[in-house]
Amino acid sequence: MIAGVVEGFYGRPWNARQRHQLFGWMKEGGLNTYLYAPKDDRKHRSRWREEYDTGQEAELGALLRDCQRHQIDFVYAIAPGLDIRFTSDSDRTALESKLVQIARLGVRRFALLFDDIPAVLHPEDQARFPSHAHAQSETANRLREALQRICSDSSLWFCPTEYCGRMAGNRPADSPYLRVLGERLHPEIAIFWTGREIIAETLGGPEIEELAQVLRRKPLIWDNLWANDYDVRRVHLGPFTGRDASLAHRCSGIVINPNCEFEANFMPIMTFARWCANPSSYQPDEAFTEAATAWTRLFNAGSRHEISAEDVSWLAEHFYLPYQPGPAGRELWQSIEQALHAPSPVNPATRSKLERTLQRLTEIQQKLGELENRDLLLALYRPVWDLKECLLFLTQYLAWRDADGQSTFTSADHAPELLRGGLIAALQSCLNRGPDGSVAVNPARFFPGTAGTA
User: Fold this and answer.
1) Torsions phi, psi of 160, nearest 5?
2) Per the residue annotation, which of 91, 116, 244, 375 is the catalytic one?
3) CA atoms of 379 and 260, how far apart (whole Å)
4) pLDDT score recorded for residue 280
5) Residue 431 backbone phi and psi in degrees, to 5
6) What pLDDT band is residue 451 in, cutting at 50, 70 and 90?
């Protein structure tokens, strides 16, 4: 089974040193595939027609050789969908020439990506093709033929424009787009799928089985469980979970697209690798604890103030998964809820728990500041700082309420212009969101420096 990592996010691509470390982690975990698809490599996406210069070509060649040394398959992806003209001979030639350049480096695995692109074909393309699916499948088939002429052992993967259930109207079996792909795309071209959603909370066997019938092949899962490019304030350190063990034989493989911050991805990669090794016996909590213990070595390498495995695990539980809080995060939320809604004064046990949490978080933050691995520090610094400041603000409020509770509470440490300040925070405050996703205008919305609310 294909099991690996895709560098496929929006944001700063990883560098050669980070990718080298990635391959070490992957080999340690038994993963076998790396997909090169950073959205902000301009020659991968926005300037896809341009061939790599000599220096860039050398870097890609070195990356391929690094993969080979670690027994990892290197897959090069190209994403021409923003502006390709499917009827253009020059565009077809540019696409083929670009991948010929990559093939000459020794690459034999390729991917053609049509995700996150305009929904309407160019007028000239509309005159020839009934739909996007017809245009894309013909282009993919031609590209596969061109690659086969150069290297008969090449293979091609394909990312559709409808790459999750919601994009297919929540009924993939009834999607004309997916049906055309299944009918017209060469059967040896693997097709990516992310699940019911772009960020799928769960992936089950029956839904994948149904999709396979439409696509006429087992899908290749592009798993965005830990992706965070959609919200730069978040980082996800929880375990691989919510995936049915039967996926191992119902899909052709799984590649994970993790956090943008490379150093934050040890836990995701190692827990995913543990699942791949034995899906039927996999236990997320056990995998999480084991990975946290192993990750601690990277925190403490060369550092004067060691962080315990328990502290690493506890910290990661506050930055868990998009749909699921970790145990420590859930406990903190419950303590805050209890304190805010209970009559004053705060229960002494609850107050003590919150104070201990703040103290522990502050001590961990101070130890992070001493890390020799500065990239690991920088990957975690902002979310840890943000959590500490939010908790400090809440505990100050609770202390004021118990001591006074009559005047207006303000915090000299957290002026409204500073804590959660700025235009983005103000815009986010305009609408209150309910747990069901419903929204309502927030009457207390506020933007410093303006006349106030309407």
Assistant:
1) -75, 165
2) 116
3) 9
4) 97
5) -125, 130
6) low
> CB pairs under 8 A, 24+ apart, for 340-348?
340/398, 344/401, 344/402, 344/405, 345/402, 346/398, 346/401, 346/402
What are the tens digits of pLDDT across the range 180-222?
999 999 999 999 999 999 999 999 989 999 999 999 999 999 9
Q: Which domains does the chain have, with CATH numbers?
A: 2-280 (3.20.20.80), 309-403 (1.20.58.240), 415-454 (no CATH)
Type of residue numbered 137:
S
- pLDDT surpasses 60 at 170: yes
Write the single-letter amino acid at 320. Answer: Y
Q: What is the pLDDT of residues 348-391, one digit of tens each?
A: 899 999 999 999 999 999 999 999 999 999 999 999 999 999 99
Q: In this structure, what are the phi and psi dihedrals at residue 186, rounded to the nearest 5 degrees?
A: -50, 135
**Lookup: tokens for 15:** 């560098």
Residue 33's nearest CA partner among 79, 68, 58, 8 is 68
Residue whose tokens read 């009834």: 174
- Asked if residues 174 and 162 have their Cβ atoms less than 8 Å apart, the reply is no
Peptide bond into 345 cis (omega under 30): yes
53 in catalytic set: no
* CA 326 – CA 311 distance, rounded (Å): 14
Contact 225, 252 (CB under 8 A): no
